[in-house]
Amino acid sequence: MPDISYSTRIWRKIATCCSSHSTVSLRGAVAGAATGTGTGTGTDTNDVYAYDTKTKQIHSTQALAKASANMLSKLRSMVVANGYLYVTSGAKKTSTVLCYQRISSAPSVHKSASDPLFAFVSTVIGPTIADKQFTTSIAHPFGIAFSTGGMVCYISNQDTNVVAQVTLTGNGQTGSLGSGSQSAYLSKLFPAPSTFLDGTFVASQQGAVPDVAVVATSASLSEAICEALAPDRQ
Q: Is 71 left (phi over 0), alpha (psi -120 to 50) or beta?
């Protein structure tokens, strides 16, 4: 599963949430030029725009409620699953996957474009850091995908170069990483004493990466592709 990258000058359509009144589409706003300030400086705007797909009316320019001042930083991707909106906050200082829930099914109840549409529920997963180094597979998360049942998610991470498998609990509000490799196929290819970051589902081609405490076993490109594209081998 490749990283879901973003451009500092483009809104990328990520998710659609339906209500009885209209269809509200969400787009991540990531830069001054994208949000209409016209600066073109690439300064991050850490929020999400929501608009009606029929009328094109903007419903919110700050769709995500913030539980703290710096919880949203370098938003990478959004996915609707389990009745929630999941958002990856990818900056190194955050490195989290956040869970949000729709405040109301009727966008018309919001009085201004600055009213949020989604309430913060929980932090699903975040980094573990020791001596300023990451110790698990979660570091600068980018893309996120869910299993058919919705209670397992897969997160691509820039700084570890690993796709992590996260097991969800609490109706999808919280998650945890298993120890080491989470892929039976990977574990078969690289039995003990091979080492992998906790939560590793697709391993890195290069096991030693900057700012990561664990030097993992390197997986060749072909082996990593097999892990991701051949689930029947698990």
A: alpha
Domain positions in the chain are: 12-233
pTM: 0.78
Pseudo-torsion of CA 145, 203, 73, 41, nearest 10°? -110
* CB proximity list for 137: less than 8 A, separation 6 or greater: 157, 160, 162, 163, 164, 177, 197, 198, 199, 200
CB 63 within 8 A of CB 116: yes
For 122-176, what is each residue's pLDDT tens digit? 999 999 999 999 999 999 999 999 999 999 999 999 999 999 999 999 999 999 9
Residues facing 86 on adjacent strands: 79, 99
CB 142 within 8 A of CB 158: yes
